[in-house]
Amino acid sequence: DLSEEQALDYVWGYTCSNDVSARDCQLRLDTQWARGKSFDTFAPIGPWVETDLDPDNVGIRTRLNGETMQDSNTNDLIFSCRQIISYISHSMTLLPGTVIMTGTPSGVGFARKPPVFLRPGDVVEIEIDGIGVLSNPVIAENE
User: Fold this and answer.
1) Is 113 exposed, middle or buried (0-12, 13-18, 19+ CB in 10 A)?
2) Are the C-beta atoms of 103 and 95 separated by less than 8 Å?
3) What is d(CA 110, CA 28) in angstroms, rounded to the nearest whole number?
4) What is the CA radius of gyration of the chain?
5) How far is it, in rounded angstroms, from Cα 48 to Cα 55?
6) What is the torsional sign of CA 13, 62, 18, 87?
7) What is the pTM of this model?
8) DSSP state letters, 27-46
9) Would you tell me how many other CB atoms lie within 10 Å of the CB of residue 44?
């Protein structure tokens, strides 16, 4: 039950994460999104945890094979980190080590015209100023 003013006092640090989605499951195969966000290797985080950062004013970018797909700032999030933490803490207990992912800037692949989907051999990079770059290859399940 944290207030927005208290929220960041309970944060150990910040890192990058890749909110991977299997759109074939989400849009065609399933009626619920949980499985499409939960396969092995989905939601990688890193490259490290930064403890001295203003989470509500940092640049954030996503690149696919070196091409910028998303370029924004956390000050463009619908809800600030303080608001998100406060809201969640009123519904559930946040334990040490809890990871909260805030969402993604505009520019996701499936919403583009034409849509862009990940393929084996692709490399996705998530970059947040002050933290660094999380780089993940896309590998077919049978490899």
Assistant:
1) exposed
2) no
3) 13
4) 16
5) 15
6) positive
7) 0.84
8) III-SSSTGGG-STT-S-EE
9) 16
pLDDT (tens, 9 = 90+) of the chain, 143 residues, equals 999 999 999 999 999 999 887 766 666 666 666 766 767 788 899 999 999 999 999 999 999 999 998 999 999 989 999 999 999 999 999 999 999 998 777 667 666 678 778 889 999 999 999 999 999 999 887 75
Within 8 A by CB and 6+ apart from 29, the residues are none
Contact (Cβ atoms closer than 8 angstroms) between residue 94 and residue 1: no
C-beta separation of 84 from 74 below 8 A: no
- Find tokens 């809201």 and name the residue: 87
Of 137, 108, 107, the closest CA to residue 120 belongs to: 137
Q: Which of 136, 108, 142 is nearest to 26 (CA)?
A: 108
The structure tokens listed for 86 are 């406060």
Is there a contact between 71 and 42 (Cβ–Cβ < 8 Å)? no
